[in-house]
Amino acid sequence: MSRPFRPDASLPHPSPPHSPLPADRDASPDLHAPPRRARGAWSLALLAIGSIAVTWSVAGGAALSASLPGMLRVLPWMAGLSLGSMVLRYLRWRWLLRRFANRLTPWRGFLAYVAGFAFTASPGKAGELVRIRYHAPFGIGGAQVFSAFLFERACDLVAVLVLSCLALAQPGLLALAAAFVALLLATIGVLARWPALFGRAADALAGRGHPKLAGMLRAVRDGFAGCRIWLTLPDLSIGLAIGLAAWALTALSLVLLLAQLGFTLGWTAALSTYPLAMLVGAASMLPGGIGSTELAIVALLAPLGVPVATATLAAVGVRFATLWFAIACGLLAMLRLEALQSKGRSA
Questions:
Q1: In angstroms, rounded to a whole number, what is the distance separating the alpha carbons of residues 127 and 120?
Q2: Nearest CA to 176 among 184, 241, 267, 287?
Q3: Is the pTM of this model over 0.85?
Q4: What distance in Å separates the CA atoms of residue 268 and residue 97, rounded to the nearest whole number?
Q5: Is the pLDDT of residue 255 over 80?
């Protein structure tokens, strides 16, 4: 029998703590199962080693050895900027989740948010939805986490695009990035406006004997529908303002590293390079934009007079201080949360 879609069913009313998403429990994927950390950790380690190997081959061992002490001196400052960016984005996350009655404490909430970064190097950052597992015990349903994730992604896309427009040295890449952002925002807007499209597809799958796929589509439907509760001027303003501040801090990491390597660029050009490279990396659809983002940084720095070897060092260095640092923080937060949940179950 067809299940009618009720828009208010997924809005400010939290799902039960042990229900992953507002769909049939038997049909939904088990998003509360402990994440498989070992395989992911090995994959990330191999990617990191690959990045170092590529840097060594392009920049040369001598250049890398000569620049390494300076990079290590500035690395704590870059990591601090990345941590500041995480804190700002977490404050926005708490602002979004204030709509729901929940018992999430600030510190536990910060850990639950940061844990998502353990899987940020996944296509579309979908791995960050591991946050569903760590928000559920506090009365925040999976659909609500998914809705906040979509709204956050939309705000970040706009913020990063605005920062990319500070310098128009590469109009071709900027046009590509703008088209990519417009396509994603249009997709989110259409699916949030007409979420019943998922409901009809889910009913069709359920009728053909695919209950798990049907459950996943109903979960996605409710997640897109839930985005509409933040389409208010305060929520949009705060979401975009914090996004701009957070990603400006991230972009500042590349400015500091280039200065340490002996290249001082104009502020607009320096601040726009990393955001534009991130959009190019996202458009490549590679996990975490690994490889494509680094290549985009090198391509953007070359016209500014930065040698390829130095640009390669800067690209890999800034990615270690931002992407890989965030992944490390996410893994540590996840381990801590797993320990706390195990302690709670045994108590």
A1: 6
A2: 184
A3: no
A4: 34
A5: yes
